[in-house]
Design brief:
Helices cover 73% and strands 0% of the residues. It has 124 residues and is mainly α. The protein has one domain. The longest helix has 29 residues.
Length: 124
């Protein structure tokens, strides 16, 4: 799944550099990159844990679902928290969150497609 993750990393780089002009705002880039990384690392667990379609055909245990939800909420909260300055984070613009949703949907769909191909090709 590493190459798929890299595709979405590059998409995030492009978004932050060319849409949000982070060439001149490295703190915004740093914050967005951190949040995107937490989201992708958390979501991929749900994709690789089952041969079925995650969230639709197969739901994770409640502890994994709850942990995922808490980690994602924490990542959303950090740039607005009292810890933000200490971590070098700044609030993210609303358009970033919309773009992140699109990136995450694409990431999950492409990961699922590759996983399905891999299981069919190489067996369980």
């Amino acid at each position: 799944m590493g190459p798929i993750s890299s595709i979405f990393d590059y998409a995030t780089f492009f978004l932050m550099l060319y849409v949000f002009n982070c060439w001149n705002n490295p703190v915004l880039f740093h914050t967005a990159w951190f949040v995107e990384s937490i989201f992708t690392q958390t979501l991929i667990i749900h994709v690789i844990r089952t041969n079925k379609i995650p969230f639709i055909q197969s739901r994770a245990s409640w502890p994994l679902t709850a942990t995922t939800f808490l980690v994602v909420l924490f990542a959303i909260w950090l740039p607005y928290s009292p810890l933000a300055n200490l971590l070098g984070f700044v609030p993210l613009p609303p358009l970033y969150w919309l773009a992140l949703i699109g990136l995450m949907l694409g990431y999950v769909v492409l990961s699922q497609l590759v996983k399905t191909w891999f299981v069919r090709r190489f067996g369980e």
